[in-house]
Amino acid sequence: MPRPRVTATLVGAGRVEQIHDAVAASQLALTADQIGRLTEASAPTLSFSDSLNSAPDRRMVFGGDEVRGWGEAQPRVLHPAGPSSP
User: Fold this and answer.
1) Residue 32, SS3?
2) Cα torsion for 23, 44, 40, 21, to the nearest 10°?
3) This prediction's pTM
């Protein structure tokens, strides 16, 4: 499993043979070219709802609050809210 942040693969099997095949496949070593071709072939196609993922649209949907995705930089907090410590 050469993909970053992937620690497990979900396997759905209806027969014992499928589990054996999945375990055997986990031992395959793919080349960088093979991985690249598989990544390209399995890239998701963006749909209408993906267009609603821009920062201005998220502010509108979430009542003006700043909502950031996992890969987006988080704002620096200069003065954290809450009680101050001595």
Assistant:
1) helix
2) 10
3) 0.42
